[in-house]
Amino acid sequence: MSLENTSSNRSFGGWHKQYTHTSRTVHCNMRFAIYLPPQASESNKVPVLYWLSGLTCSDENFMQKAGAHKLAAELGIAIVTADTSPRGDNIPDDPDGAYDFGVGAGFYLNATEAPWNRYYYMYDYVVKELPAVIEGHFPVSDVKAISGHSMGGHGALTIALKNSDAYRSVSAFSPIVNPSVVPWGQKAFTNYLGDDTSTWLEYDACALIKTAEKHVPMLVDQGDGDQFLHDQLKPGHLLQAAEEAGYPLELRMQEGYDHSYYFIASFIDDHLRFHAQHLKG
């Protein structure tokens, strides 16, 4: 499999690069970005933090707005940002052109309903194909953690809970923790997975945390000024599920912060240090 390098930028002694490749999983060309810290070399393969972005985003939002490169360079951690869905002229999209479903809104699951099940296999892409590409082409190890924002926070939490042996740690900003019971999740799950709501629980962090056999260290930050807090995010549901299951969750409510990348940039250093202690422990 070949990669096409579409951009390269020097950043804090390392390199930020964008690539495209033909994905066997989602049957289209996909783009990702990687930040390689200055320590990365064939003789010194560095651990990786995978970042999953939210609705309407791409691989670019986090890399351009989060301000993560400086500390990642100091800590010697690579960062990989995936796209949020398949893209292309032949990819089915929300027929009404809404932002919360279809292109840009893959929800990091494997769709089972037509026509979505031809392309929307973002779970397999993030868990299987993308790490194989990264580990096969860059000076990184197979030691990894995962994080994300909003829809991507949902993806990070569910992926870590379902693959506890693969990820050293997981964190999230403003995650959709209980998608089965909120409008964003219900719309996506009905279309991608069908009307049998029991199948939705496979991608619901509040359900998965109750049956987790292994505890992946988990940090969640949520702004109490987030406009989506009460209708879509519901962090209290995750806290209650974790307490019932005896799962060691650190949930921090941050006063006055909203859903934007200003919030992420304010606390990304905490998350990078959190992951570093587990990636290098």
Automatic annotation (TrEMBL):
Catalyzed chemical reaction(s): S-formylglutathione + H2O = formate + glutathione + H(+)
| Entry keywords, A to Z | Hydrolase, Serine esterase
Q: Which GO terms describe its biological process?
A: formaldehyde catabolic process
User: What molecular function terms (GO) are annotated for this protein?
Assistant: carboxylic ester hydrolase activity; S-formylglutathione hydrolase activity
Which InterPro entries does this entry report, sorted A to Z? AB_hydrolase_fold, Esterase-like, S-formylglutathione_hydrol
| Catalytic residues identified in the record | 150 (charge relay system), 226 (charge relay system), 259 (charge relay system)
**Entry similarity comment:** Belongs to the esterase D family.
Q: Its function?
A: Serine hydrolase involved in the detoxification of formaldehyde.
What's the protein here called?
A: S-formylglutathione hydrolase
Q: Which organism is it from?
A: Enterovibrio norvegicus FF-454
